[in-house]
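Researcher: We're teaching a course module on how sequence relates to structure. For the next exercise, students receive a sequence and then see the predicted structure as tokens, so they can try to spot secondary structure elements on their own. Here is the exercise chain.
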Amino acid sequence: MVTARDIPRNPRIRSTGHKRYFGAVDPRRILIFRTVARAGSISAGARELGWTQPAVSQHLQALERTAGSPLLLRGAGGVTLTEAGEMLLRHADSLASVLHVAGAELDDLAQVRRGTVRLACYPSGAATRVPQGLSALRERHPGLDVHLTEAEPPEALAMVQDGSVDLALVFAHQGQELAEPDLVVHPLGTDDLMLVLPSGHRRARTRGLALGRLAGETWIAGCDRCRAYLLQACREAGFEPHVRHVTDDYVVVQNLVAHGLGIALLPDTSLQAFRHPEVEVRRVSGVEPRRLGAVHRPGVESIPAVGAVLGALVGEGVG
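Model: And here is the predicted structure for the students to work with:
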């Protein structure tokens, strides 16, 4: 229970005049009053608080001036409460109870016994490593409540910036930045890009396959970042890719490939999440892996719940 003992010793008294409404009452003085009322005398209350009797009396007098009415009747045997004092004591008990609950809840948050964390993540990460990390986190901190939103990096970063989420897992391809300089980035390794072909494709058995040998193919492109890198890599390999289909759903991509409607580059994590039985997956030279990272606003990691989620995801090597 939070009591007046928790109040800083001898806080400076500020005159509030003779206002006759309790909205102007200093809550510290209400707790001091409660301690004295429960102790039965000013001297006993002062001992409980660890203060001098004149300091406690000064606070009580200031409280009575603010209330516009005596709260305590002093006598040789201690103090008795006036009608106003009885009323105020009921509110003082309520205040002490509310502060006790607030203190307990703050302690729960500090000890990561509870807390809410909002997380955004790109689709393949949300389908693979995030569940692994959150499952391990639940065993250590079962009271944490993590809300996951699937979002591609541009949307996820915007959500971090405007405070819609606390933490985002993002990726960036060669020549792209993981996040803006004003955000904190925790590198989480890389994710290989794999070539996805229909079963029986003439290039499926080619050894040492280079991107430049796929110039005549029809391509399926992904999200904005993925599409930009596909165009960049193909141009560096000496050709302009013929992109017929665009989707950021890796299940749709593989179904299109399986039906012979194009070929694609997909990250390894998306193939871990779903692998169509009628596609071939090959490594191809001339393609760089994408970089992964956890991103948040400066200082957010000091919130215990966010720090716990970040630690679980970084520790699990989220990809």
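Model: If you want an answer key for the exercise: Residues 83-110 form the longest helix (28 residues). Residues 85 and 104 are 28 Å apart (CA to CA).
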